[in-house]
Amino acid sequence: MRRMAMIALTSSLLTLGIFGAAADAGPEEAAERAAADAGVVDAGAEASPRGPTPEGQPAAGATGQAPASLMQRLSGEGPTIATAQPSTEVAAGIILVSIQTKEGVAVPGAAVTIGVMSPGGVREELEGVTGDDGIASFNELATGTARSYRVRHVYQGATYASTPFRLPADRGYDVRISQWPTTTEERQVLQFSGETQLQFVQDRLRVVHHADLMNPFEETYVFPEGGRHVSLPDGFTGFQSQSVMTDQKLTPEDEGFRIEGSIPPGRVRLTWAFDMPIEGEEVRIPMDVLWRTMRYSVVSEAKEGMTLSVSGFPEAQSAERGALRVLLTRLQRRPGDEPFESLEIRVGGIPQPSSFRWFAVGIGLLFILAALRWMRPGAGSPAEVDPAERDAMRARRDELLEEVALLDRERESGDIGPQYHEQKRSDLLTEIAVVLRDLATEEPKPKG
Questions:
Q1: Is the N or C terminus of the chain more exposed, i.e. has fewer CB atoms within 10 Å?
Q2: How far apart are CA 259 and CA 251, in angstroms?
Q3: CA gap 398, 407 in Å, rounded
């Protein structure tokens, strides 16, 4: 009964909550309208908790009610699944890991892994199991800046992990991970916003896709065993994907790429890119639409004589993005619309590659700025960065260094090719440079 009610709620979100008749409503109001329309809960009613919850976790709704955190998820907030904090109640050199259900019930016998990264990219793993109290203790660990730690817990195919951290010399770390139920029901995931950007680079057309995904349920979606294969157009080259700190992994394959991992309750952004050769004045790009979609945009250069059309989309319009003029078309789903599973992008009137130089530079900068904004939500000018964000930047730096070391090992073992290794390594080093620059700007200066 509850599953049917939640499916009804999701259907209402697709037709009423975000767009269509409720297009002008805010996320909270849209969620209330959708929930009321689905008959799940009266608009504005509070969901009743079902037992104790850990601090920072949403209360689980009673049977037949919408999840209490639904409105927050529509606004971009997800539940707190993993926390890692220094604690004076934990002795130095110790990491205590607590595994609980989302209702706050201790989980005994849960496997816990701690990844340890040492200088030079050396990596090792520590294994443990929680006791009857749901806690696993890792003792006599090295403190200081030489090593970083990241705690992981795998449950039914979903990986829940903390951000990387270092152990201070005077206290230990308290790590808490919530274990959420899982599902393989693909309809649980919505693409509330998808965008394809077209960047011209000499004789190539770079296709960049951003997928903003939402899981509004109280279960973590797990991709099928072996991952989900995604086909890319014939002739594509240079596949790349943006690294994330969650467990989604995009791996290149001969005819496309594979997505593995899971999508927990809340929001996730995935970004990937590939190149298409330009042979003549027109390029056609067939693409699969992977998830049920609320809004989808395609943007390209607005150069004289150039045209952009997308199957099933409105006629492209000239628009401004920053200082750039672009061609833009967007499709929003309306009540009663049939879902679309594929589309074809057609760019015509393409001039000589040399004329794309400055456009490529401009839209490339937009892409980089968008990526940085996503990694640092809410950040303003450098002067506004607070200590918590500095800690997040340090954690991201450690994560990136770890990814570079792993990438080099994959190349040495032959798991990835030289072209992908070079492109991916360059992207990671560029991001590391940006993070180090920000840290150098924001680190407190020593006195004297």
A1: C
A2: 7
A3: 14
Q: How confident is the model at residue 70 (pLDDT cuts 50, 70, 90)?
A: low
| Alpha carbon 11 to its chain's center | 23
Q: For residues 265 and 26, give the distance between their C-alpha atoms in angstroms, rounded to a whole number.
A: 20
Q: Name the phi and psi angles at 298, rounded to 5.
A: -130, 130
* Distance (Å, whole) CA 349 – CA 203: 14
Structural element, H or E, at residue 439: helix 418-442
What per-residue string of b and e applies to 354-384 under the rule 16 or more CB within 10 Å gives b?
Answer: eebeebbebbeebbeebbeeebbeebeeeee
Tokens of 102: 């989302």
- Residue 380 has what DSSP assignment? -
pLDDT (tens digit per residue) in 279-301: 888 899 999 998 989 899 999 97
Q: Per-residue pLDDT tens for 174-210?
A: 999 999 999 999 888 999 899 999 988 777 889 999 9
pTM, 2 dp: 0.64
Phi, psi of 357 (to 5 degrees): -55, -55
